[in-house]
Amino acid sequence: MTPITLVRGLGLALASISTAALAGPVGYGAGTTGGGNKTPVNVSTLAAAQAAIDAYSGSGGLVLNYTGTFNYASITDVCAQWKKAAQTLQIKDKSDITIKGANGSSANFGVRIVSDSKNIIVQNMTIGLLPGGEDADAISIEGDSSGTPNKIWVDHNTIFSSLTHCSGAGDASWDGAIDTKKGAYDITYSYNYIHDHQKVALNGYSDKDTANSAMRATYHHNRFENVQSRLPLQRRGKTHIYNNYFNNVSASAINVRMGGVALIESNYFENTKNPVTSRDSSAIGYWDLRNNHVGSGISWDDPGSPGANATTWATTQAFGSTGYSYSVTAAASVKAKVIATAGAGTNLAE
């Protein structure tokens, strides 16, 4: 298939790739400041990071500078990981926190933001090959009966696992990379590099997760390569998905379900199966498609019933205004820009 750019609607195009440091979140997570200008607390282990969070009052500002490293080459059998206990840094009912990885750092634990936690930044972390199977999301944002996280910014992280499906693990050799569940809202996922991972971004815990109707999330300038599905899997709510790069997606990319609506704008797709679809739920979702670049290697399969594929790249429901200002890179330039800027260790380039 010859690469084409599908043009629907209007957008502001940036002619060149900028590598300036990112000033702050754009999108539904705008206004997130985390721990602000508090003096960073250096931590090099999961235990030290958890102790600092547990000792923190819960408001006023905490900045953790994570300096630890993990040797991923020490994992000689990736299929032993899912049988191990999950390792998770938890933020629960606490706000105004930044967790920032130092350049060159790496972690073998996830980050869980739960309950009445807000104004949280997770930035520049490298997280890979987590133990714990279905109990081990790399970054999980989840509401509960005590509250719902909001104003969250997940930015410039690198997350990976393995495409190996391990015997006995079912579909949970690895769990989510960036998951949003049970009412969490006003979140921006930006400039993350997620690769060699199976289930990338769950957005809505299940078809019965009606709390997700209030969800609003922005995904921009993320790099998704050598992955299986959920980019994101959206149940209910609203997402704005713009200027992301999708390559080597083996099952499905953006999967909008249960009445959810997605604005899918100026993304770059290549070598992707079912790039925009609605499948595997009891009700379909809808999309507003604008200015996406559709490269070679695109394929489709039957979405089942009820289901739909965006094979003609036509809008099925207008999204309306996002309610915020943003600048859009021309779709044909997204691949180069995102490869140059996404992930940890790029000095937060944009």
Automatic annotation (TrEMBL):
Q: Which residues form the signal peptide?
A: 1-23
Q: Which SUPFAM superfamilies match?
A: Pectin lyase-like
A Pfam match is Pectate_lyase_4
Q: Give a GO molecular function annotation for the protein.
A: lyase activity
Cross-referenced InterPro entries, in alphabetical order?
Pec_lyase, Pectin_lyas_fold, Pectin_lyase_fold/virulence, PEL
- Domain Pectate lyase, by residue range, is 39-275
- Tell me which UniProt keywords the record has, alphabetically: Carbohydrate metabolism, Lyase, Polysaccharide degradation, Secreted, Signal
The primary site where this protein sits is secreted
**Could you confirm whether the keyword Electron transport appears in this record?**
no
Domain of life (superkingdom): Bacteria
Q: What is this protein called?
A: Polysaccharide lyase family 1 protein
Q: Which organism is it from?
A: Pelomonas nitida
